[in-house]
Specification:
This protein is mainly alpha-helical. The protein is built from 15 helices and two strands. It has a two-stranded antiparallel sheet with strand order 1-2.
Length: 295
């Protein structure tokens, strides 16, 4: 199967599920439902839920796409959390970004208070969706994995350190921590959830977890680079936001060339972790996709 066809078919399956699990726009209170739908159904790349699908299908051997139907609540929950993080990232008090995915950010389209509530609502909706899993034990384990990824030990923790580090001189270790938590934690959750749903042994789970963390850090370093030298068309928002907000970035700390080398090494490490696994073509494509973003 062509890689493009994989992303198309899995993406189509996910889009239907996202629409299904969101309340309709005309349901009271309408404004919050409109804001949630606007932010989620906005042509995102869906990298995290598709990584979840791809990891699971690599482990079981790719067969009928209908085998993914029971996993849809997990994929939806992952995307809800990711979208919530983007809504909150864009707020004036955080990154102050007026655009997201080529459209006005949630707080610009609606208002700041509605955007805060929409992000909060999507996180709680993600947990609610996971309770739809038929296997109660698996549902609880999925909630545990996802809430850890969201928590102060994960995404929120990375965002908190990022905020307190603004306009401060920090070292590379602190910046690595920020990126691992802000970006890597949810990618790691995607592979961990796939391993859980297939009952994988610990060694496989750890290997795929490290693949996801390396991929996440590389992705964020490339984003740091593109924020300096990229375009609106590539980023989906105006470049230069990091420097405008006095954010610490890899190019600012170690320079553009060293940043590129660091990203390339992380991508090689990700590839090496999975190169001997069967049915690994989509996971390899994730590595290639990040590599192709490097300017």
């Amino acid at each position: 199967m062509l890689v493009q066809e994989y992303f198309r078919t899995r993406g189509k399956l996910l889009e239907k599920a996202l629409d299904k699990f969101l309340d309709p726009e005309d349901k009271y209170p309408e404004r919050i439902n409109q804001a949630m739908r606007y932010s989620v159904l906005s042509d995102g790349k869906r990298l995290r839920p598709i990584l979840f699908f791809a990891t699971y299908e690599m482990l079981i051997g790719r067969k009928n796409i209908n085998r993914l139907n029971r996993l849809l609540p997990i994929a939806v929950a992952i995307e809800f959390v990711h979208t919530a993080s983007l809504i909150h990232d864009d707020l004036p008090s955080v990154d102050n970004s007026d655009e997201r995915r080529g459209k006005p950010s949630c707080h610009v389209k609606f208002d700041e208070a509605t955007a805060i509530l929409a992000g909060d609502a999507l996180i709680t909706k993600a947990i609610e969706v996971l309770t739809k899993l038929k296997n109660r034990s698996q549902a609880i384990s999925c909630i545990r994995i996802l809430t850890k990824a969201i928590s102060t030990r994960g995404m929120i923790g990375g965002q908190a350190v990022d905020i307190i580090s603004t306009r401060k001189k920090i070292n590379v270790n602190t910046l690595r921590y920020i990126h691992y938590k802000k970006t890597g934690a949810l990618l790691q959750a995607a592979t961990d959830l796939a391993c859980l749903m297939n009952g994988e042994e610990e060694n496989t789970t750890i290997t795929l977890s490290n693949y996801a963390l390396n991929l996440g850090l590389a992705y964020q370093i490339v984003d740091d680079i593109l924020d300096e030298v990229g375009s609106f068309e590539v980023l989906g928002k105006a470049p230069g936001g990091d420097s405008k907000n006095s954010k610490a970035t890899y190019p600012a700390l170690i320079g553009l060339e060293q940043s590129k080398k660091k990203a390339e090494k992380l991508l090689r490490d990700s590839y090496n972790l999975i190169k001997n696994m069967k049915n690994n073509d989509i996971l390899i494509e994730f590595v290639n996709m990040v590599k192709e973003r490097l300017p």
